[in-house]
């Protein structure tokens, strides 16, 4: 039984992690401002305490860290929309970088003992470099405030880790999909939007020709990776790609979804999104070397996701 903090715990990844951790009888504290996360995502359990707060609230965060003494900290809170970071670079920076550095600073200043701190970074740090697949050692070219903040926070995690002896690790997430992903924004994960369209019989707006490639990874595999990097290994001060390690075109994803749902998706083709990356997929050798083995491919992952969506 551990004491765990999940910032952004009402969001897609954080709430799925909470689902898994309550099975270990962990005591979980969730901090979320509910800007994208949903209350209904949080499992109903006495093991969970939820605070509606923004991670930029320094007084709140400091008091929480000093009073609770967490074993594991998962830093998932953030403004997830790349477009939003382009519109509001300074404000999103406060959340996506500054607040995270402050959390590390409290750990350092007060010598708080932690077993592991994990930060959720993104494949966005690789930018548009054409070399594929993306390796952790590939060129870094963050092209937006979002990507810059993700990369800078990664570096802070690594440096606070090494300089002040705090066990830290960062994950570069590729395209995660599965239950509890909120489809409400145009910048929500494309599979949550496709699910919503298929379920409601709505037309899907496809930006580009559908030949763009992404590395889609099912949420259960991501949770396995997170546990591997925190509770199940002493790996420290390293960055890992978290993906399935397979590139799939958006057209193939749609075909797989139609097959799983037994329904056709109405598609409206629109021009490519400005700044959209054409090809992105990961080399996951580094994570595999720790024992990671994705259980789902795109067909089985979508089939499981559809089962959930259809029953909801
Ligand atoms: C993902 C991350 C983003 C950032 C980026 C870094 C998600 C949700 N977003 O963006 O935060 O880390 O990677 O590279 O994981 N599309 C449509 N119609 C729609 C929505 C999307 O055609 O209604 C297309 C979109 O133009 C893109 C593809 O689907 O080509 C995937 O879009 P996405 O927003 O799910 O993910 P991505 O890779 O752009």
From TrEMBL:
Residues 4-243 form the NAD-dependent epimerase/dehydratase domain. SUPFAM superfamilies: NAD(P)-binding Rossmann-fold domains (SSF51735). It holds the Pfam family Epimerase. Belongs to the NAD(P)-dependent epimerase/dehydratase family. This is NAD-dependent epimerase/dehydratase family protein.
